[in-house]
Amino acid sequence: MSGPDDELTKAADALARRLPEPLSVLASIAYNYRWSWTPGGAELFSSIDQERWKLCKSNPVRLLREASAQGIERAASDDDFLRSAGEVWGTIEADLARPARSGPLDPKRPLAFFCAEYAVHQSLPIYSGGLGALAGDILKEASDMALPMVAMGLLYRQGYFRQRTDLSGWQHEYWVSTDPDRTPAALVRGDDGAPLLITVPIGDVELTAQIWKVAVGRVPLYLLDVDRPENDFASRWISARLYTGDPDYRLAQYALLGIGGIRALEAMGIDPGMIHLNEGHAAFASLELARVTQAANGGNGSSDHDGLEAAFDAARAKAIFTTHTPVPAGNDTYPADQVAHMLRGVAGALGVDPQSLVSRGRTHPEASEEPFGVTQFALRSSRAANGVSRRHGEVAREMWHQLWPGRPVAEVPITHVTNGVHLPTWVGRPMWELLDRALGEGWQDRVSDPATWAAVDQISDEDLWAVRRQQRADLVEWVRERSVSNRLSRGESRQYAIAAAETFSPDALTLGFARRVATYKRLHLLMYDVERTLRLLGGERRVQVLIAGKAHPRDDEGKRFIQALFSGKGDPRVNANVVFLDDYDLGMAARLVQGCDVWLNVPRPPLEASGTSGMKNVVNGGLQLSVLDGWWDEAYDGNNGWALSGALDFDQGAQDARDAAELLRLLEEEVVPTFYEREGDAPPSAWLTRVRASMRGLAPQFSARRMLEEYEDKLYG
Fold first, then answer.
1. CA distances from 523 to 322, 516, 519 (A)
2. What is the tens place of the pLDDT at every residue in 98-124?
3. Which CATH superfamily is domain 111-161+172-416 in?
């Protein structure tokens, strides 16, 4: 088999042949997502053809195929452009040439990271929300740290759904197919030049899968794809859509990811020293590890109980598991017979009754009436497990303590590693340049060290405020255009369509609420007391609000929350000051976290496992107004933002009324006055004091660098 890197090189070479020789280096840059967090990388491609770059969803491979001849010729003759291209490629080459990081992970047997979704970049739409954003940040930070890691996922040709709202505010879904040959991906091929194939038993079907490879800096991301002629048309649908609502297809996806992922690594000659299961979707990887171990030890499919248990113990010793949510919908369960049928092929190879495998996914293994849970299976199949914030670790130990009968809750072996974010991905360019000046050369390699951020205190009010205004202005300019197109596409009147575009200001307090729309996120609190909210929006001190998010296609209650926002659109205070942005994605998320002054987050505690969007806002000088749940429970100190109670309350109606009132009180009495409190034309000093406290204390603590260093210390060793 030829190396997967060779196939990416061949793909880049083929693209380079379509370009003038001076631009050939662009093809190599395009086939490694390292460009997306290299200073000047995105600007390099957008300068070729800005409009085409937008239409291509910032996909450099498509851009280089579709840009106008004039744009390509102009770039090829522009010495400044060619110099910039050389600098970007030089940065990427130097990064790829570094030796692997010394530590608990062996470069010859890398860590294999398994996840159902990855938000690496908007041009690779195989993500839906926070889990994918975190996974993408982990791969990028692992690359920056030179950790020996490979990643495994699925190539969803239709990805997650796209969103449009109608005149009433009701969400409608549609899907857009992605041609993988037009993305920075290449098929892994065997020595004969044909695509390398694996087979995965799914019930009565032997599914054939091919493997795509994507370079995320130094980290290879492998994506399984069953859109192959060997499979029937119904089976090809298994990897078509992320989080499809059909339970049979969802379960088949989990088998493909877990079992198929291990088989794909084996087929490519990769022997991972450890596997990291990022959420329960990949739990069946441990099952395949046990089968491989049994076969290596001479097992022949007989029901040797001791040998089988030894194989499971060996698999467990190689696996760690991260659980990401206490919400029941995030911990999938399935009827026992459905799982037994799906696993019958693997069970036969192991020489066991499929029901014995099902029992490993029950809280009470002998309770035949109990369904199979992927989280329970993953917990039983891993040597270590963790939640994603301090409070979530506590909640997870309480949730799953019955898996360890006889142990006190405090001794349940689930620890926590609080999430963090990849700063180079999320920091806006003006803030990046300010931090370059303030923190010194190479600050990106020292982001987890609190001493690095002490220099934030030396940034003047004028410089910090200038950056905040610039990033807010960039966001406002984009919102003006986007709000008009969104509103007109819904069929709104021209007057309503242009209302926000005419009034949104680069100098006004800008609040952001953007996330997956689920019931527990409590989007409805924003309009809980309509009259009081309208008074806030119509006050002398301007407040403008940006809202974005998608409800799952089968979550009608979430859709009703979105629709409720539109109930006030007849009031000019809403029309001019509140914008709902359709089709929330990674690109929109970056604009919002960079430009918003305050990030709102009002989940029902204790259901917010962590949350990461607020962390991204922090490093851009934004402040948080959030419930004391997830990461904010350990981040808030009284001086770095604002907080709502995180106390558990079983009277949800009373809790919603209380939290909605406190949210508005904080906005009316603290947030708005502090933002607008100025001495003449001077920047708001008290506001910027909070911003400095937030950045200084939270940027290192909630960086992906700190997160991965903690994984090394607590779980990878």
1. 27, 10, 8
2. 999 999 999 999 999 999 999 999 999
3. Glycogen Phosphorylase B; (3.40.50.2000)
